Sequence to fold (104 residues):
Amino acid sequence: MSRWTTVAPWRPMPGNLGQAQALANGANTKLTNAIPANCHAVQLSAAGGNCMVVVGNNRVSTATTDVLVKATDGPQVIGCEPGDTIQAWGLAAGVTLYAIPVTH
Fold:
């Protein structure tokens, strides 16, 4: 299992702020902002608990079939396309998902 380090090939995209979204416990939540133009990766991290995340063209997240983002792990970088949406399923109460568009 790889560990997150401060020496990483990813950096936040200039001019694109990340977003934080409180997730519903046991339900799908769509993050407000779509993936910006020229973005092909997004960094995801969770706080307060774990969640399932799907990145795609308005795909809906579920509790069992998507990418698990654990609050105890470091950030994960997921590939995406401009205009994609991020949707997440909170696996506990009080989960917040953080999403930052990144580039090399």
The mean pLDDT is 89. The chain is about 0% helix and 40% strand. The chain has one domain: 11-103.
